[in-house]
Amino acid sequence: MSSPDFAGPVLGSLLGGGFVAAFLHAALPTHWLPFVLVGRAQRWSVARVMTVVVVAGSAHILSTAVVGSLIVAAGLALNHWVEGALPHLSAALLFLFGVFYLARASLKRPATAGGPAAELVEPAVTDRAAFWGLVLVMAATPGEVLLPIYLSSATEGLGVLALLTLAFALGTVLGMTLLAGLATAGYSILRLERWARYEGAILGGALILIGLLVLTRQH
What we know:
Helices cover 72% and strands 0% of the residues. By secondary structure, it is mainly alpha-helical. The longest helix has 36 residues, at 46-81.
């Protein structure tokens, strides 16, 4: 069951933080650039690219929710053995992911003209194979940075977890469609890639802030 004091601003902060984390995670080039490149190689329309982005983004969140539910079950079992350990474990994971993304962002090199955008080739597969290949790739890679947020709310009940999943879905699909749509519509892919370089630093900071929120809820 959900804690009686887990409502209003606290719930709003958690859902807002989950949405922001999902949106920033979706801004990683691996979450939208493959759709742009495959769409151009297959000569897809913008509508076709947006369709596969939405389907793939939904599959991505579905697999994240499945893995997240398993982590929640394991976390609840751990919480029974070590009372109060769950929030500290989830906060520690959020801090670790935050530091990882901050460190990786500081080591990234600028995108160059010889990057992925220069490697467009003629279509080598059928449209159906390309479509479902992109969907399966996203389904097979759950959003790892979102999993500690599930863990932080493991004791709050199915309702909160369902709302959190919805926030993840909205943030992920919106981020993926926005960037893939801009690039497909004709905006410079390389310019978007350079902008997305800063996503790691922003995402790292956001994860650390969410970790602090998790710890604050315990006091």
